Each structure stands twice: as structure tokens, then as C-alpha cells.
Amino acid sequence: MLTSSDTGSGAEEFAYNLKQMERATLIGETTVGAAHPVTKEVVQGDFYVHLPYGRPINPITRSNWEGTGVEPHIAVPAEEALKTAHLNALEHLIEKCQDEDEKNYLEWTAEIIATDYSPVVLDEADLSRCTGEYGKRRFFIENGQLFYGHQELPGAFPIIPMTKTRFRLDEDMKFEFVLDKDGKASAMKLYYRDGRPEVIANRTG
Questions:
Q1: Please, are residues 164 and 157 in contact by the beta-carbon 8 Å criterion?
Q2: pTM, 2 dp
Q3: How far is CA 145 from CA 53, 140, 141, in A?
Q4: Which residues pair with 38 in a beta bridge?
Q5: Domain limits, the chain
Q6: In this predicted model, what pLDDT tens digit does every residue of 116-168 receive, in sequence order?
């Protein structure tokens, strides 16, 4: 469940109860901390005060969240809560997965999602390390982006950086460049989402 410092009212109670029952993982910020409902009362015709008229009591804690709020299990800024929850859920699925093929698919997907949330930006100096020909495959820079081409395929395709040496083509192919002692790519590894054997090609040009 996602929370923020603006989470209050029924949503705050819902978060508190789920946490105490251990039925949810709360991710985000500590909530408002307003457990007691209040009523507006007029005083001497010119002033008004808000007076509490109720006090919810949780059967597990024998207390509530008034003044303290509900602390999340994983504390992150509210704007990062959805990303954190998504990745945390994937990590949990990977950890519990017993099927090797399914686990590989989840790990493949998690890496893509992580870089979608936090895109990697490389300059041309970084990209130039990977340019060149690797057998029938070639990589070149155009308009500040690394492109992939194949001798047997028309055109070329932009690839998305995930690290300084690891890139992907859409959802199906990933490239990893092996750097030599001078920091220049000497070989390229190609991985497929469908589980086909990886391809390793040395730099030829």
C-alpha cells in the first residue's frame, strides 16, 4: 500500500489496520496522524473550536495513530513510492519463484522496469566505447544515440542504455559490451528474452 504525508481519514485507518494485521507492506511516507474525529463548535458566537468526539481503538494494539501517523515499512518520498513498490513486488516474486524459466523472465523484466523508472543517460564519450563491428553486427552513434545494425537486416535500430556497457532493443534483446584494459569494447554479448543461447562476438572492426 502506498502512503504519503497527506494520507488521512479512512485511508489512514485502513493503512494502520492492514499494518497491524500484517496484511500489507506500506511504502512511502508517514501518514497525517489524525485518528480522532472532530466536530466544529462555536464559542461565544465569534469563535469556533474543533473538539474530538471519538477515539478508534485497534483490537491488536489497543491504541491508534493519533499524533504519530502510520509509519511505512519502506520509507521513501511519496513520488518514489510507486516505483519502489513495483520493484519490491518483482523482487519478492523472484525470491519466491521455483521455476527457473519464469525466474529468468522476471529478472529480465525487472531490469527493464528499473531503467524505465530511472533512465540511464550516456554522453557520446561513453557510447563511443561500444561502437564498431562485431561479426555481422555493427554499432554506431547517430544524434547522440547508439544504434544497432545487422548485415542481413535492413535499417538500424536505436538501443536503450541500462548501464554504461549494457543496452536493450525493445523488450526482447539485450547487449552487453566487454571492455578491454583501455576501456574500449573488445567483445559483445547478445541475450534473448525467449531463452535462446547467448551470442558472443569479438570486435572485428
A1: no
A2: 0.81
A3: 63, 8, 5
A4: 52
A5: 2-75, 124-202
A6: 999 999 999 999 999 999 999 999 999 999 999 999 999 999 999 999 999 99
